[in-house]
């Protein structure tokens, strides 16, 4: 195949759509580790390679002329290696998607120059392929359509939605007009369709950046868990689900949260056995240094089974005041300790690095 003189951006865009379709991507952020696993490609880290070959990270970087990562094709399967000593998770995600781009665009198969090493490619040819896959990575991780539909116009909003690095977010914003130009209308239609549900969900939901609580409530001003006002329209992967009591439509506990009394009076607000207020709502009292005082500005809103605060006015909830719900930080800490980071499976670590193609 003749080497392209310029990056083939419309080809990149159709590969991006092929990727969404084949990998069944319908929400963000996209997980490159999962894509690699699903395709049975090998995955290895620079740290593993240093141990295996008894060399330093910098000699791996020198050998493959890449600080971030590379892909090797042995004629049958691909192995991606990435520099796991880089502390920026967003940058690692971009690197992996960049390498996946080389695979999706068939670079290692079509361009014989990539056999042996990148050093056999002229700098100019290398740049063409790199531009293609950087565009691929950018448009897979943070598609122009989503950025546009959700009106994301800051680096922070992009980082929160797509888990990319600050510099990738800056490029994303800058390249928006160019990427739209390269998206032919059938491709735009496809993406709008593919992500319709995700876009709608983002628009109608809130995520609290403080306690990571995710909930559906278009009008919420305050987070029901931590009472903060830092709410975003986001559907993310790091969201917390806080434990909740089961309540009926009138926010009344079905079983008493304190004494487990199951025969609660369906009209009353108080448990007949232990005296607990069994409706979770915006409280009309407030704790202070000198005990409880009544407040007049309670809005009386009925709340969810895990709400510590009123989503309208930020008052404490009746459940929280009765210590039926812990401080959110306690539950947050517990969950964090449970999280086990995905163990990266042993890739097909290349035993012999010669005679393989890599980019
Ligand atoms: Zn919160
Ligand atoms: Zn009770
Ligand atoms: Zn209220
Ligand atoms: Zn590359």
Set out the fold topology.
Blueprint: H1 9-22, H2 32-38, E1 42-45, H3 46-53, H4 57-64, E2 69-73, E3 78-82, H5 89-104, H6 107-110, H7 123-141, H8 144-149, H9 155-162, H10 166-174, H11 176-182, H12 185-194, H13 196-204, E4 205-208, E5 214-216, E6 231-232, E7 285-288, E8 291-294, H14 318-321, H15 328-338, E9 357-358
Parallel strand pairs: 1-3
Antiparallel strand pairs: 2-3, 2-9, 4-5, 4-6, 7-8
Bound molecules: zinc ion (ZN) (4 copies).
One zinc ion is lined by residues 256, 258-259, 261, 271, 273-274, 276.
Short characterization:
With 359 residues, the chain is an alpha+beta fold. It has helices spanning 9-22, 32-38, 46-53, 57-64, 89-104, 107-110, 123-141, 144-149, 155-162, 166-174, 176-182, 185-194, 196-204, 318-321, 328-338; strands spanning 42-45, 69-73, 78-82, 205-208, 214-216, 231-232, 285-288, 291-294, 357-358.
């Amino acid at each position: 195949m003749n080497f392209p003189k310029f990056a083939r951006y419309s080809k990149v865009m159709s590969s991006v759509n092929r990727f969404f379709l084949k990998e069944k991507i319908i929400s963000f952020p996209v997980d490159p580790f999962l894509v690699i696993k699903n395709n049975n490609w090998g995955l290895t880290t620079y740290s593993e390679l240093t141990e295996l070959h008894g060399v330093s990270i910098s000699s791996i970087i020198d050998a493959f002329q890449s600080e971030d990562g590379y892909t090797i094709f042995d004629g049958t399967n691909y192995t991606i290696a990435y520099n796991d000593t880089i502390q920026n998770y967003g940058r690692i995600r971009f690197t992996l998607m960049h390498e996946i781009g080389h695979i999706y665009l068939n670079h290692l198969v079509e361009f014989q120059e990539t056999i042996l090493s990148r050093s056999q490619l002229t700098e100019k040819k290398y740049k063409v392929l790199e531009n293609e896959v950087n565009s691929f990575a950018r448009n897979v991780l943070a598609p122009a359509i989503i950025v546009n539909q959700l009106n994301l116009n800051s680096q922070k909003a992009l980082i929160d939605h797509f888990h990319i690095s600050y510099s990738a977010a800056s490029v994303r914003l800058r390249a928006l007009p160019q990427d739209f130009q390269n998206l032919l209308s059938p491709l735009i239609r496809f993406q709008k369709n593919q992500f319709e549900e995700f876009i709608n969900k983002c628009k109608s939901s809130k995520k609290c950046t403080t306690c990571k609580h995710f909930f559906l409530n278009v009008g919420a001003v305050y987070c029901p868990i931590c009472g903060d006002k830092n709410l975003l329209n986001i559907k993310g992967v790091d969201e917390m689900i806080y434990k909740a009591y089961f309540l009926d439509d009138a926010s009344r506990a079905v079983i008493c949260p304190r004494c487990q009394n199951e025969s609660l009076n369906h009209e009353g607000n108080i448990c007949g056995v232990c005296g607990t207020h069994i409706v979770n709502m915006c409280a009309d009292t407030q704790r202070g240094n000198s005990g409880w005082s009544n407040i007049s500005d309670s809005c009386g809103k009925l709340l969810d089974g895990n709400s510590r605060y009123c989503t309208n006015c930020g008052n404490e909830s009746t459940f929280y005041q009765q210590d039926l719900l812990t401080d959110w930080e306690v539950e947050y800490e517990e969950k964090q300790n449970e999280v086990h980071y995905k163990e990266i499976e042993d890739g097909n670590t290349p035993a012999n690095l010669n005679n393989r193609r890599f980019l």
